[in-house]
Predict the structure.
Amino acid sequence: MITFVNVFTVLPEKQQDAFQAIQKVYTEVVAHQPGFITAKLIVSDDSTRVTAIANWESEENLKALRNTQGFKDLHDKNFYNAIISNDAHVYSTVVEIKPQ
């Protein structure tokens, strides 16, 4: 399993618009892809970021998502209207710490 973390820096006055655009990608496309496990979308309290944290079976599944027409269609001008930049990385779990 891999974890994909994508931090979107957004215009503060458009954080909600950015969140809705990102949520649409996840609910309409990502959630239906082979290898997708789960995702969490979070927003910063200062209104400058929206972060997507998704678990996938493999990096190959994640790469395949980017080639789907639905993914490409939703990443249009409107999607980027509220987004200044994004910083995406794939992570592997090394240690998981749980409450005792």
In short: The beta strands are 2-10, 36-43, 49-56, 83-92. Helices lie at 15-28, 59-66, 69-74, 77-80.
